[in-house]
Every structure is written in C-alpha cells, then in structure tokens.
Amino acid sequence: MSDVCNNLPPAPSPHEQSTWLPKHRRSVGVARRLLLDFLRASPPGLADLFSSTGELLLSELVTNTVQHARVPADRLLLVRFALSPAELRIEVHDAGRPLPSSVSTPQQPGLDAEAGRGLFLVDRLAHSWGCFPRPDGIGKAVWCTIAPARPQ
After folding, report:
1. Quick check: 142 and 129 in contact, CB under 8 A?
2. Which listed residue, 31, 36, 37, 67, has the most CB atoms within 10 A of its CB?
3. Are 62 and 92 in contact (CB under 8 A)?
4. Tens-digit pLDDT profile for residues 58-113
5. Which pLDDT score is estimated for 37?
6. CA 150, CA 109: separation in Å to the nearest integer?
7. What is the CA radius of gyration of the chain?
8. What pLDDT, on a 0 to 100 scale, did the predictor assign at position 85?
9. Contact 56, 121 (CB under 8 A)
10. Edge-first strand listing for the sheet containing 140-146
11. Could you give the angle at the alpha carbon of 92 between the alpha carbons of 86 and 77, nearest 5°?
C-alpha cells in the first residue's frame, strides 16, 4: 500500500461517534466498550455484522497508539466510529508524528514474537486502511474500514 499516510478523511456520516480518551493502556478496553455501545445503538442487525472484527481492529489501533505514539503523557487520543450498512470505519487520532515506515508494508511477526501483530492483523482483516495527517496539522489518524461479516 503506497502513500498510505496521504489518504484524506471521509465526509462525516450521519451515524458516527467520537470520544477523547487518555493515552493509557486502560483506554483499549474503554474504546472497545464504546464501540460495542455504539454498534448496539445502530440500526437493527448492523451490530452483529461488525462487532467481532471491529473490536479486534480497534484494540490493535488503540494499543499501537498507546504504545508507540511519541507524545507527552497528558495528551489525549481520539477514537471515531462511523457506520453505514456497507462498512464500519474506525479512526484513532493522536498528536504524534507520522507513522514509521512499517505502515506501508506490515511485516508478519515470527511464531515466537510477543509483539508486532497489530498492523499485520489490520492489514489482513480490514477492507482498507491507512493514515492521514490531522486537519489541524498536529499528529495523525490511523483508520480502517471493515466490511460486513458474512452470515454463518
């Protein structure tokens, strides 16, 4: 995926939510709960199509931000969800500099690796993903879109 950090954010969706969270490991679980609450409040039937993959990929994106964004400890991160019948879009914003070069080609971690699976999973499970500079010029947002799950 070339120029993955040059993608622009989409226009706002009628069904979306944004929340600021502290840059702390506990924010991963809070973000997941917020996503599930958001999906439960969505039009009937949509929550089941997006919740499993959405939870996993949101966890990976927030974890990456918490662990790797080089920002002061008091900086917040923003999670944003936008939902349509065709896709769930997840964004995680932080005030850190652009992503490292591994964004364009996530590497598959070794079998014994204890870390390094986040962007690899996002790359494999998301319909699309990338990042863009924040409109105010401070930091970036990493995003992914998730296609509806196929019925079992």
Report:
1. yes
2. 31
3. yes
4. 999 999 888 877 888 788 999 999 998 899 999 999 988 765 444 555 555 555 54
5. 94
6. 28
7. 15
8. 86
9. yes
10. 16-22, 76-84, 87-94, 140-146, 128-133
11. 150
DSSP letter string over 58-124? HHHHHHHHHHH--S-TT-EEEEEEEEETTEEEEEEEESSPPPPGGGTSPPPPPTT-SS--HHHHHHH
* Total Cβ atoms within 10 A of residue 11: 6
Confidence (pLDDT) at 30: 97
Q: What is the mean pLDDT of residues 123-152?
A: 86
What is the C-alpha separation between 44 and 120, in angstroms, rounded?
A: 31
Rounded CA-CA distance 125/77 in Å is 23
pTM of the model: 0.80
**Tokens for 41?**
């409040």
> What is the phi/psi pair of residue 141, to 5°?
-130, 135
